[in-house]
Amino acid sequence: MVLMGGLMNVAETIKKRKSVRTYVPTELSRQTISKLSEIASSLEGPFEAPFRFVFFKAQGKLVGPNEGLKLGTYGVIRGAKHYCAGIVTRSKHDLEQLGYVMEHLILHATDMNLGTCWLGGTYSKKNLLSQLRLSNDEHMPAITPLGYSAKDESFLSKSMKWGAKSATRKAWSELFFKDKSLNPLSTSEAGAFEQVLELLRWAPSASNKQPWRILKDGTNYHFFMQENLMTTKAVGFPLQRVDMGIAMCHFELGARELGLKGSWVDMKLDSFIIQKAPCSYLITWQS
Predict the structure, then answer these.
(1) What is the DSSP letter of 154?
(2) What does the alpha-carbon distance between residue 266 and residue 249 come to, in Å, rounded to a whole number?
(3) Per-block average pLDDT, block size 10, for the chain (287 residues)?
């Protein structure tokens, strides 16, 4: 499984990554796209759902075999010439798988000084789906632009960041808990995993909802999801499941960089109620 894959410093790259919506309107070199494509083809996820990435240009000739693809982003993304679509086969944990591998690719792009932005509901999906020719059992939960960040952000970009409060994250006491008591987990109680959880805390999520709730039980870290039904209704599928895959990517990369051993296992735990909302079990990091 490709984990580090050439990332110079996982923690620095995670903190460097930000959502870029305004780009310098220049094309990327073929060498840059080729390197990203090579990284994409080498990635493996923690689940069995097959996935693939398609790199394309929004206008003109595409990078790859497709021609004439048109993309509408409702004015949210400006200046970007290149995009990457994350495509996954419909199956168990398909959305989590896509979130995990695509965030890994995005971090590599960040390491290459490229700007990116997770798009899961602000692009003209119907038009794009028809032209990328997905099979009947595939779907495309997200895409990202790829390019160099413009120095001056558009007013819309600044407004969206403010609306999503993208520079803020929930406190530890709202995200991380311990044993069956469900009391908040302190940084000291996290021990060697304090930095790992902090890197997870900085994972991007749809509208910055941060749906992950982590329960430490001995040496196990159980991952639960708190779904936002309004987002699910607006997008048409539980986008928070993609966010959970992103969180898993941050957690595992952080653990690997610190030399902390562990692996993903399904303990089939029951859901629980916290902060007056149901939290559904996903998976456990067992160390």
Answers:
(1) -
(2) 16
(3) 59 94 93 96 97 85 52 74 95 98 97 94 76 90 95 54 60 93 94 97 92 96 88 77 97 96 96 85 96
Find out whether 262 and 285 touch, Cβ atoms under 8 Å. yes
Q: How far apart are CA 199 and CA 285, in angstroms?
A: 15
Gap between the Cα atoms of 271 and 159, Å rounded: 36
Write phi, then psi, for 140 (nearest 5 degrees). -125, 90
How many CA atoms are closer than 13 Å to the CA of 141, on its beta-carbon side? 28
Instruction: Report domain extents, the chain.
Output: 10-161, 168-286
Assess if CATH 3.40.109.10 describes domain 10-161: yes
Query: In CATH, what is the architecture of 168-286?
Result: 3-Layer(aba) Sandwich (3.40)
pTM above 0.70, yes or no: yes
- Smallest Cα–Cα separation from 166: which of 21, 25, 274, 24? 21
CA distances from 78 to 81, 140, 170, 221 (A): 9, 21, 29, 40
Q: How far apart are CA 262 and CA 223, in angstroms?
A: 14
Q: Checking phi first, is residue 191 left (phi over 0); if not, alpha (psi -120 to 50) or beta?
A: left
Whether 121 and 237 have beta carbons less than 8 Å apart is answered as: no
